[in-house]
Amino acid sequence: MGDVLSRSKTLAGRQKSSSRPLALLSALAARSHIMAVSLLMTMPPKLVFFFAQRYFTQVEVMSGIRG
After folding, report:
1. CB 49, CB 56: distance < 8 Å
2. Which end of the chain is more exposed for a tag (fewer CB within 10 A), N or C?
3. Is the four-CA dihedral 16, 18, 19, 23 of positive or negative sign?
4. How many of the other CB atoms lie within 10 Å of CB of 58?
5. How far is 39 from 45, CA to CA, in rounded Å?
6. What is the pLDDT of residues 47-66, one digit of tens each?
7. DSSP-assigned letters across all residues of 13-43
8. Its pTM surpasses 0.85
9. What is d(CA 1, CA 4) in angstroms, rounded to the nearest whole number?
């Protein structure tokens, strides 16, 4: 009887440990999607600033504020 009980505990432990990598992969996949979306959302403002940087600095120079 004790042998059957220990085998069932061992099998139950294996089932739990085999689901952990799937949960980890799922979490990593969700995190990678969030990172991809955040990269795509921040690119347009960065590109606008990169191409319009010359105009931003001209406005600062023409404003006449002296440091």
Report:
1. yes
2. C
3. positive
4. 10
5. 11
6. 999 999 988 888 878 887 66
7. HHHHHHHHHHHHHHHHHHHHHHHHHHHHHHH
8. no
9. 5
